[in-house]
Amino acid sequence: MTISIAAEPAIGYLLASLRIVAWLVVVPPFAGRTIPVMAKVVLSVGLSFAIAPSVLEAGVPTGTVELITSAVTQVAIGLALGFVAMLLLAAIAAAGSLIDVFGGFAMAQAFDPLAMQMNTVFGKFHSMLATMLLFATGGHLLVIGGLLKTFELLPLGGSPSLDLGPEMLITAFTKFFMTALQIALPMIAVLFIADMGLALLTKVAPQLNALNVMFPAKIGLTLLLVGLSFPVLPEATERLVDLVNQSAAAIAGGGG
Fold this sequence. Notes:
Elements: H1 7-26, H2 37-58, H3 64-89, H4 91-103, E1 109-112, E2 117-120, H5 121-136, H6 139-153, H7 164-204, H8 210-229, H9 232-253
Antiparallel strand pairs: 1-2
């Protein structure tokens, strides 16, 4: 029995899968080692099948040079989209790391199973919390939908405008730092005021051992402030998902 496969649909499917696989390699939490490789393969195969009809309508390159160029371009586009998404989604974890620095938890590090590296206490906690919120709110579906939308804005034969690269990176880094600071800055300000108060306390009562008071007080205050910040995190996650989709549309919209 001979099985024949149409060349153009197969090429379109493979090119689409290159962009999706490159994106999955970079974007958390799909990029983590905690997600099995087989699960990533099945996800990329399913997404490629879902987007294949619209890819074929836009046309598929068939020449050897055009095919190689398109394959390299799809990998580069997937990596660029994934890097920007990874940078924005890491803002909540960065806010947790800032809290560790000012709350006195930076010296205690633990293994982060999502990033597969050592991380600070609240950096790890906020990373896992952001992942949970991403799945609980359906943000992962919106992020994946934004990736699939790029095939309409930037077909397989197109290429993004390189002029937008530096501006997009600057914007992504700006949003990353702004979001992390907006989450952590109120807690940092309160912890700084607490440090000032403890410093004044040592001046008023020099016989009081400041270290015996400072560390338990800051630990309790940090835990209280982190608990009070929980209602803000779902809204921050939704805003980050919107920023990821806007960045993906901006990158793909420069295609020609």
